[in-house]
Each structure stands twice: as C-alpha cells, then as structure tokens.
Amino acid sequence: MLRNVTDLYRGNREVLRETYIPSRLPHRERQIQQVAEVLAPVLRGDVPSNLLIYGKIGTGKTAVVAQVRQDLQRRTDLPSQVSFITVNCGNLDTAYSLLQTIGNTFAATEAERIPTGWSLDRVQASMRQLLDARGGIRILVLDEIDRLVARSGDGVLYTLSQLNTELQSARLILVGISNDLKFTNNLDARVRSRLNEEKILFPPYDAPQLQDILKERSREAFKDGVVDAGVIERCAAYAALENGDARRALALLRLSAEMAERDRAKRITSDHVVRAKSRLEQDIIVECCRTLPPHCKVLLYAILQSFERRRERRDGVLTGEVYESYTKLSVRLGLQPLHARSISNYLSELENLGLIRATIVSRGRGGRTREIVVDVPLNETLPALEEDPLLAPLGRPRPSGQRLLTNFDNPNRSGPTI
Ligand SMILES: Nc1ncnc2c1ncn2[C@@H]1O[C@H](COP(=O)(O)OP(=O)(O)OP(=O)(O)O)[C@@H](O)[C@H]1O
Ligand SMILES: [Mg+2]
Question: What distance in angstroms lies between residue 56's CA and the mean position of ligand 2's atoms?
C-alpha cells in the first residue's frame, strides 16, 4: 500500500525553508557573540558603534543578525527606547524608498507618513523629524547594502552615517550586511570610515560544518530513520564546492525530500540527492537568467526563440540570425538595439555563465562565424524569461507540459558552470 506522502516529516516542513529561523546556528557561535558585543552598549542606554558584516552568500549573515536581534528583544533589561529596523536593500530601488521606509517606521498616524513624490531633501528632513520625535537608539540593519550602493550610489549612506550629528534626541546605528567583500573600496572615504567602525567577517562553511547544520535541521524536519546514510554528506559536499553556501545545502536537502515524496519513497536516498542536484541546477539557471541586464536578457530570449523554432534539430543558430532577431525584439520592446560589438560581448558573457556555447564555423567564402548552441532547458527558461516584466509583452501562451529538446537534455553536454 502507498504510504501517506507526509510520512517523511516530523511535523512542519517549513523547517527546511530559507525563511525559517532555527533556534541554533552551529558554527556561528563566535560571530553571534561578536555582533552581540558590538550592540551590547544599548543595554546600558549607550550608543554602539556602526557595524559592517561581510561574507560570501549563504554564510549565515542575515540569520546571525536576526538571532542577535531576537535575543536582545527578548531581554527584559533592554531599554524600551531601543529598537531595530531591518531593511532588505535588495528589494528597494532608490535612496528615496529607503529613507521613506525608515521614516514611516516611526509614523504614528497616516498623516505623518511620507508619501511618494516628494523631493529627496524633503523626505530626508521628514525622516529626521520622525526619528527625533520618538527619540531612543535605533539600530538600522541594512541587509544587502552593496546592492543599494550599486543601484543608487553611496549618497544615502553618507546621509545616514552623519545623521547623528543632526539628531537631537534620537541616535541611529548602522549595521550593514554585504556579500561583496570589496564593497567598501568604492565608498566615499568618510562613509567608509563611519561604516567600518566595527567589522566582522563571516568565513564560508566547509563540508563538515555544513553537515552539522544539515544534521540539526534534518533532526527537526524528518522522522527518525528517514534520511539514508550518505544523504547529508552528499548535500554538504556539493554545497561546500559551491562556496560553502548553507542556503544551497539546505535547498538540496529540501529538494531531495521532495523527490522522495514524489516517488512515495519511505526514505530519502543518495539517488534523490543526485536528482535534486540536477533540478536545483535548473532552478539556478532560471534565476541566473532573471538577473541578466536588460539587453542581455533580450539577446538570450532571441537565441532561445531561434532555437525553439528549430524544435528537435540539434544544430546551432548563427550569430547573424541571432543579431537580426535580437534587433527585431528590441524594436518591439521600444529599446534602442545595441551595436553588434556589444552583442558580441554579451554572447561571451552568456557563454561564461554556461547558458550557451558558441563554436567558430567556417562558411567557405562567407568567412567565419559563430554557431550558438543553447545549454539550458528551453521549457524552463523560456517561460521564466517571458514572466520578466521587460519581456512580458513578447510572451505567448504556452501549452502546459510542453517539452522541448535542447542540448541541455543531452547527458554528454558539458554542464553549466554556474
Ligand atoms: N550556522 C547555521 N546554522 C543553521 N542554518 C544556517 C546557518 N547559517 C546559515 N543557515 C541557513 O542558511 C540559509 C542562508 O543563510 P543566510 O540567509 O543567513 O545567509 P547570508 O550570509 O545572509 O547570505 P546572502 O549573502 O546570500 O544574503 C538560511 O536559511 C539560514 O537559516
Ligand atoms: Mg543575507
């Protein structure tokens, strides 16, 4: 008889989701203590130093800060006028929206809220007034701070880092989190020194550390005896190769469990991990496509479409044909097409990302050109690109379950390098 599909789990499967905050963070005890020490002066009502936390992706930066925040907020001796504001800068487009978000945290009434459409100076002044009206020590966590600077420069950090000189009764502490280790290099010297008052580096996890993290999580998530020997080790080894990213390790374990469920299996086996890994790589490809610059996205879309038109033929498309359809698509989208040289650079970028492969072919008297082969699954990637707001006007309804053959489905292909 088939077992119930929820049999693998002890209870709440959310335990394996990225949003879940575990009660313990193995191998981050030192960093937790360091962050807590930097912020400890708030317990005496004193103003702590600004702090910059940096480390590669999935090294527990966001989780550690969330844990320290939670620990502090649970303390009965935390002065009532100390609070945290956590902003994920990855979700904000502009300096305006950051200042507006901070200010509105302190707006007591609808009338006090900062609307959209004001001048930046006015938003800044209003935010300052709102902070001062409430007083206290406010700890502003700017997660993914590097993305804010990449998008809108360091002007807003200058404003925030010197705000304490203008505030009367409130104090603002900055805790920046970055996964770009070199991000401070391009900051204005004054901003850099203010932000860098304290800094903590999060090193990548190695395979044994990732195993500990996964073991703890799987004890919470799965029933006893459900995870086969070797499963955790494989997930950890794979993620250790991917820069020691705990997020990747957890995603692999979560997907392995989903594969087992799909099979209605009683246990999660190494075979499920192998399948999960290939699924995860596809998801990563889709994610990678979503984050390409606009023209590069249009170019990739043009290539995929040309390839799709060829259906099951495995030969590639030529650069000239790609350029022509890229130009047509750009015009349809109201974009000024880029020059062939820029497109050639983008082709190299797509190749470096492992999304396409280009080989030089001789066209007899016609000289040499590049033939492009797609290295991603069309049936995943095309719809994902069509969902992108930039490309949505080009989208077409697609019959569900349609499977298109690309080189990705060829087991002999050289795998994507992302
Ligand atoms: N030491 C740990 N123990 C348990 N879970 C962890 C640990 N470190 C990270 N994780 C988990 O791994 C995932 C990624 O961690 P987190 O989001 O903190 O990484 P990050 O360093 O902020 O990455 P990014 O730079 O990409 O934002 C989260 O789900 C988190 O709960
Ligand atoms: Mg993070």
Answer: 9
